[in-house]
């Protein structure tokens, strides 16, 4: 059994990008941090359980392992996501289904499993990682934006269902963050995006991690069903 410090936190997809920064931030705060991930290396201090958010049995088994090591999960961050960008008329059923099953149904499976212990404890924090394109839209991203918009309805329904039990459910919607995904864009496209962002720069992964950590904190106990944009002003009014 791990040393009983901080809270039991589970972040899906903590092997890279935003998920990695979120996990690192919770570790630095003294929490017991675990992840469900597919492959790759993990930050120091993170318990890694290989699993697939598209599979209920895999999610259940991963949670059971985390509970054995760290205790019941008190904070869950549904971050795991994929893209399969393609123009609408060329987008296959598989492109659509894969993205929805990972990004939206995956978050559902994780939140459903986490809620069991949270309901018993009458306390919990659920944070779903969405995107500015959820409400802003993005060409070639019908599947991705639909999956990320769905998280808003999910968080708000969870809030109405479990809000009286000390459980909050919120959405963080990052804009363009300086990750491998953004760096892979053509230079011309990067410049066009920069021109649309009032802050005039791409965000850093820690900008997103800071918002997640706040929503998971005792100070955010009266914030639920909210969509917190971390996008330098890009999505204002959406």
UniProtKB/TrEMBL annotation:
Record domain Ketoreductase: where: 7-180
Keyword Disulfide bond carried by entry: no
Keywords: Oxidoreductase
Coiled-coil ranges per UniProt: none
Domain of life where this protein originates: Bacteria
The keyword Oxidoreductase is assigned to this record: yes
Pfam families xrefs: adh_short_C2
Homology family: Belongs to the short-chain dehydrogenases/reductases (SDR) family.
PANTHER family: 3-OXOACYL-[ACYL-CARRIER-PROTEIN] REDUCTASE, SHORT-CHAIN DEHYDROGENASES/REDUCTASES FAMILY MEMBER
Protein name: Beta-ketoacyl-ACP reductase
Species annotation: Georgenia daeguensis
């Amino acid at each position: 059994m791990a040393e009983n410090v901080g809270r039991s936190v589970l972040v899906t997809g903590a092997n890279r990008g935003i998920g990695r920064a979120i996990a690192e931030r919770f570790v630095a705060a003294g929490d017991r941090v675990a992840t469900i991930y597919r492959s790759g290396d993990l930050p120091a201090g993170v318990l890694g359980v290989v699993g697939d958010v598209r599979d209920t049995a895999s999610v259940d088994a991963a949670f059971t392992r985390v509970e054995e090591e760290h205790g019941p999960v008190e904070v869950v961050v549904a971050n795991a996501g994929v893209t399969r960008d393609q123009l609408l008329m060329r987008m296959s059923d598989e492109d659509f289904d894969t993205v929805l099953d990972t990004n939206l149904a995956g978050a559902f499976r994780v939140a459903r499993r986490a809620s069991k212990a949270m309901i018993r404890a009458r306390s919990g924090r659920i944070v779903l990682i969405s995107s500015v394109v959820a409400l802003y839209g993005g060409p070639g991203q019908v599947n991705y934006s639909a999956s990320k918009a769905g998280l808003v309805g999910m968080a708000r329904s969870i809030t109405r269902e479990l809000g009286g039990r000390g459980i909050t459910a919120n959405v963080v919607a990052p804009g363009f963050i300086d990750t491998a995904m953004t760096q892979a864009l053509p230079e011309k496209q990067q410049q066009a995006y920069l021109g649309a962002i009032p802050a005039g720069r791409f965000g850093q992964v820690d900008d997103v991690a800071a918002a997640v950590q706040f929503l998971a904190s005792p100070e955010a106990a009266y914030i639920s069903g909210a969509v917190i944009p971390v996008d330098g002003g890009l999505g204002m009014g959406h």
